[in-house]
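Handout, section 4.2: multi-component inputs.
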Amino acid sequence: MAKAQTTFVCQSCGASYNKWSGRCDACGEWNTIQEEKPLSTGPAKKSLGAMKGRAVPLSDLSSKEPPPPRDASGMEEFDRVLGGGLVPASAVLVGGDPGIGKSTLLLQAAASFARAGLKVIYISGEEASAQVRLRAQRLGLADAPVKLATETNLRDILTTLEEHKPDLAIVDSIQTMWADNVDSAPGSVSQVRAAAHELTTFAKSRGSAVMMVGHVTKDGQIAGPRVVEHMVDTVLYFEGERGHQFRILRSVKNRFGPADEIGVFEMTGGGLAEVPNPSALFLQDRGQPAPGSAVFAGIEGTRPVLVEFQALVAPSPHSQPRRSVVGWDGGRLAMILAVLESRCGIPFAGLDVYLNVAGGMRVNEPAADLAVAAALLSAREDAALPPETVVFGEISLSGALRPVSQTENRLKEARKLGFSTAILPSGGKAAGTGGMALSQMGELTSFVGDVFGAG
Ligand code: TYD
Ligand code: MG
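Output:
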């Protein structure tokens, strides 16, 4: 067998190659392939099956496990996203764009956990201790019993953690960590993978929870490959628009709780403030009903959240009209425009279309289809929707409206925020209407006819 060779690994997606090339075939990125040495260069080992191992104990599926214990930080938005608090010995990855507020969030969380009685160590590989201390003072956290260190050498960090045995160790960030047994530069895929692996193993074997910060690449992945996401128990993304003050912490994977749960924060001069009622916040700047605006009653994780879709439709000066979307899927917008055009006879050819979710929120639910269609139609017809109305429902390619889950929760939240009418698909379970007047429809054409008297 040939001796172990160096491999070439794409720093964006983690694909590996035998030789260097300018462009990664797997993800299409240019100049991301770098040479990396393999972890071990020893002789090829015998096949595992030929050597006797240890038989592992087996158990039944019916064996009773108590639910994992949880440590609450007292930051309710943070605890909820974790699934009700931090699970001891779990590994958590917090991803987000640079500058979005990850270090601020985790410093605040560290202080809250420490004040709740946990032994917390915060290790920064990016900022000097003085810088972190200064921030803690500015946020009024200086008195919290958090232990601080600045270090990037993983071996030293693990030894330190071993010695102090914290309940929670925070590592900011995984890209700055450097494992001296791996022969490539900090921030490379091999290093990130090795660091995440070592820290996760430490969490499992020593019973300390570990939270790691990960920066995301420009296509929205946690830098380095998805492998880090597979290793850890929980992956949280911290999202938001830089220019906006709202920040959303979203769980995209959670072995100990529901995924897709969100926590909403507001970035203020004094750090991140929790927003217990996000619907009110997302709708606060809404004035009188205006053309192009539709309020969507959505569900994020276990919680109903009302957001406003805003659309603008204008004659296009270009031969290829613009389709611009913020906070919603561009492909889904194209689909809804196509359904409006071919099923309802409402053309958008020659018109620029802009769609935006107010407040910097990102909506992923197909249940928002009808709200998007409503905003688009309202903008195109230059007619506002009826006042105090929320809209939700999925649209199929045939133009039929499909009922969506948790109708009652959506209606209840809308009622709570002062809405009196809901437009939704027929056939959904809506036993408790929460005191709302319901306008249920089976087809998109009836919506167009009823609400805009067109189509
Ligand atoms: P930071 O937590 O350093 O971001 P990350 O770790 O994700 O790179 O936060 C950076 C931004 O947050 C910075 O531009 C300033 C802003 N900020 C506030 O607005 N208020 C505050 O109290 C703090 C600490 C930061
Ligand atoms: Mg940071």
